[in-house]
Design goal:
CATH topology of the domain at 634-691 and 698-814: Leucine-rich repeat, LRR (right-handed beta-alpha superhelix)
Number of helices: 23
Distance between the termini: 99 Å
CATH superfamily of the domain at 634-691 and 698-814: Ribonuclease Inhibitor
Family: Belongs to the Toll-like receptor family.
Membrane topology: Single-pass type I membrane protein
Shape: elongated
Subcellular location: Membrane
Structural class: alpha/beta
Strand content: 15-25%
CATH architecture of the domain at 634-691 and 698-814: Alpha-Beta Horseshoe
GO cellular component, one term: plasma membrane
Protein name: TIR domain-containing protein
CATH class of the domain at 634-691 and 698-814: Alpha Beta
Length: 1093
Amino acid sequence: MSYRFVLCCAVFQTISIACQELSIIEENHPQSFWKCSTSENPKCQCFPLTTNGDFSLQCSVGEGYVSANYALKEDGVNSFEIECPCNETNPLQESVYTFLSGIPTSNISILKFNFCPLPNESLSKFFGHMNLSFTQRILLRSCAPITSLHHDSFRNMSQLQNINLQNNQLEYLPDDLFNDQSNLKILWLDSNKLKNISGKIFKHIPRLRSLQLGSNAIKQFEIGALSNLSNLVQLNLQNNLLDILPSDVLQSLTNLTFLDLSNNKLTSLDKDAFQFNTQLTELFLLNNLLEELPEGIFRNNIMLKKLSLRLNTKLSKIHRGVFGNLVSLVVLDLSNCSFDQSSFDKHTFSNLTQLTELNLSRNKLSGLHSDWFSGLANLTDLDLSWNLISTIEDDQFNSLRRLTSLKLNGNRLVRIEGNVFQGIGALKSLYLQDNQIEVIQSGAMEYLGELTTINLARNRLKFDEGLVNPYDGWRQSPLQYNLKLESIDLSQNLIADLYSDWSLMKSLTRLNLSNNQLTSLAITDVTRISPLRDFTLDLRSNQIARVNFKLAKLVDGPLDDERTEDVFVKKKMLLDENPLVCDCDAYFMVQYMNRSMPGVRHSWRLIASKLTCQKPASLAGIAPAKVNPSQFLCNCTDDFWPCECYERPSDRTLLFECQHKNLTEIPTRLPQLVGYKVQMNLSTNSINIGQVNPNSFNCCAHVTTLDLSNNGMESSMFGTLGWAQNLHLRFPGLNRLDLSHNNFNSIPNGVIDSWNGTHNLTYNLSGNFWRCDCTNLALLKFVYGSWKRVRDFNQMICDNGLLISELSVDKLCPSVNAASKYLTIAMPVLALLVFCICIMFYRSRRVMRAWLYNRQLCLWCVVEEEEEENDERIYDAFISFSHNDEKFVNEELVPQLESPPIGLPHYRLCLHYRDWLAGEWIPDQIVRSVASSKRTVVVLTENFLDSLWGKLEFRTAYQQVLKDKRMRLIIIVKGELPPKDKMDQELQAYLSLNTYLKYDDPFFMERLRYALPHKKNVIVPGSRISQAIIDHSESVGKDQANGVKPNHLPPLPLLTDREKQKIHVILPPDIEMSLTPTSSASSTAPFFPNSPK
């Protein structure tokens, strides 16, 4: 319920907000809201857009839509745009226009009428319905041609300031079309078909500032056509048919600053054509038919800054004073005319002191006069390209101190002399391409220290005149002084080397050497060129046959901090369209190209999508990246005639090819290269390996493949081959031996044994007729057992023509194979059985050790070396128990330990009812019993916990354990483990950290014996413990009689403090032990030490 309630509230809130917005629209624009909310015209749909009253209206017409968009901007400017589907064959229905005319669009500032055919009524009447009296800007663009407009089209639109009538194919304009537009400032009439400009059409628009009449068919202006446009600033008349410009046409345009007369048919100009246009700053006369400029034509245009006379192909002469008054001129374009060296004199440009750009390109200049540019102190760009200039004198440019760009491309220059550029030290860009330059003299470029761009493409440069650097042997180019160069274009020349000075240009970003005569390239040649990461080296279309990147690891090694290396390398090298020889050098290039060369930074990105191999013929036309790496080969440096040697870097192999050489012995001189292995191909010769000296193979440590196929060898040759049985010694790296297509029928067993010991070696044995019977059993077993190592196993045949792969040892030798078959089955079974036994022994290792010890078996592995071997304590164990458990001790433990079955160890036990001295203090007896025993065995029952002496015995034993740091305390749990609440904390702690024995364990006695001191030498059956003790006592008595000092037992670890009748454990003083018998010699009681002194 709560969820539904929240959802209903949200919906209600949304509807409320929407209603509020619609009410605002209705309040501000009631009529438009009413139109959008009614369905009077079912073919139209109206959509309110914003609360400002913006809406979008779409009306269907045929298969298209008429759309109307109304927008109110924040600055109060309203715009209304109507757009129709262009090329719509169905005429607009009158109802649509009626609907549009009814939309309240008062105070519209901008009206756009795009691609809509005009309605049947006049435009003024249609606009009158829309109340456009406040419109300032109107655009009328029709899809269908409009040859003319109704003379009342803009009536009552007095506020218009901008009218755009472009691209309507208008041919005629009524004289009174703009009578009501006295405020008009911009008028667009370009890209129509107007032919004549009436003398009255612009009479009522005196405030006009921009008039666009370009791309029409205007041939003439009637008298007074522009007379009332004194405020006109910009006039565009380009792309018309004007052949004459009367002097009075521009007479009234006193404020004109921009005039474009380009692309007309003007053949001449009146000397007074521009005399009243004193504010003119830009004048374009390009692409006309002018033959000359009258002297004084620009006498009043001292404000002119840009003048273009380009593409006046008949203009060949400039009169002396034509440019005399253009003291503000900045840009002068005289290109594509017919000027030659006689067209100018020293005064032609002398007054152009503010000129910065002069374009004289594509003329007929064959030379330059030294005084042409003497007054152009501010000139920065000089274009002399595509002329006929063949020589340049030393002082030609001396006055151009600020020149930064010089274009001399497309001329006939052959040499660049020493001091040509002496006066233009500020030059940054020099263009000399498309000449015939063969030599640039040393020092000619010395004065251009600020040069950043030079283009020398399509010349005949070789740079043979360069100096040789004495330090690295590199030759220096004529550009050695221009260390600030950023771009060098030397394409389509005759350059055959890379020059050392290019590596000193730290700002170089592009070096174009395409279409030159470079024949080889090494990574060491290009590494030093430009440290910038966005550098491009263009080496396309040279004669580069070999690209060596073998030393890339040395010169392009990894960065100290790999994090500074960009993921995408920007340093590019272009190598397309070179006659590449795909040898081993190309292999390293492909590795570098694929960024797979280990230990290399790969600072270059090789771009070679169109690079293909030209040689060898087998790889011609194949892209190097698609070549199998094993096909990249090159000749070895040494000669091994008559054999051939090739280096294959993909797997670091030397191919020693000696096939078809009529050899009778194996060559003793083999190629060697550090880190490379050798493949020997000795096939199709007449080598008799039976007569080969074994010392011939001393050179073969690196041989991995030995091909001896097709040599006519026989089985009898193996008889004298000691090297064949020691193949792995003669050829330690051999992994393939080819003996195919010889005359073998068997192989000695010794050789087969050698083969079985070399598991990495594979063989080719087909093409021989092998004897398939029991006499050749060793070979057959090898073939069937190691068939994966026999590369042509499926092609091996017997001497009877049968395929060996289709036979088996069972068929060829059944009797021998039967025993082998059983043995093969038995061995895995036996191994599995041993494995299972080992697993069982490991999992039950404690029980098994106890079991073995109790049976005195394998004592060497179950009895560890212990300190008890030299322990002088009398007893093996002191049995601590409650008197209520005396029956269990006497009947179960004592007989099994003191009088065990034959073969089991005997133990000396200390029992308080038997071995304690009568009348002695019990705590002292306990301490002496623990101290004189190697183990203390506690029989833990509830009776034991109820015994005060039992607890004291445990604590004494526990303290002895802590002192000795050896596990000498054994606890036997008889029955269930007593509750913890009856145990003191020491006993609980001991039981939680140590294991104990349970009497009901089936291996209880075995475990107990194993926990007691180990005895390797068992006491002879029938001897008694008491007799042993007596013997010990007698030996001690004899020592006393002979004056020997009595033995001292180790200091007792514990004594009982008898003061104040309290019993607790304290550390005792040392005790001197005296051995005094307490009974007759036949007594079985042991001797104990006396009390402390």
